[in-house]
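Incident review: delayed structure delivery

Summary: a single-chain prediction request sat in the queue longer than the usual turnaround. Root cause was a stuck worker, restarted by the on-call engineer. No data loss occurred. The affected request and its eventual output are reproduced below so the record is complete for anyone auditing the incident later.

Affected input:
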Amino acid sequence: MINMDELCIKHYCHPSNSPFMNICRLPKEKALPLAQKMAIKNPENESFARFSNPHFENHYNRRTKVDEQLYNLFISLGGKPKETHPIYFVLHESKSLEAWLGQWTANRILLKNIPSEFISFTLGDSLVAFKESGKQIMYTKEMLLQVLEAYDGTIDDFLAELSPKYYCIEAQLWKDELLPMAHPLSKNRAKSSSCSGSLTQ
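Output delivered after worker restart:
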């Protein structure tokens, strides 16, 4: 059985970047030089390729469209987003995302502390889904918890069954005022990637 009280969402970030950022909150003319700076600073890291020329403009345009798509879909499901562009998390963890980033830091928020009207979930990476089909499979917090409560196994088992089709359950947080609830995982916990355990304050 999955312990609902211990479920968390986790935000990954490369150590050279600041956490809780969505580059599409910047106008394109301001986002472009920032993206180029990140790409130049991390030339060997695959996760930064999307920020380099000539890729970034396409990435920015797609990400903007996806954010708008998710925003409208969330509202149709009863959500009350306070931000136009969400901050992205994953449910529990994503080993594939960790491998893609190479180096990473992580912050978590316990899911039980997040009001339902400010968080949504999609199966897999929403940007990948947009590229492949133009559609999203979105869950509200209540919808997702209903599925998890009926599952006979651990959260790790559940996520393993979703792969390789979906390498994560993506979470979109739609209210920045909730970000102060996030706590960085200690270095030891970050290495093990668990949502449970001690936190650095």
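Verification: Residues 4-192 form one domain.
Action items: add queue-age alerting; document worker restart procedure.
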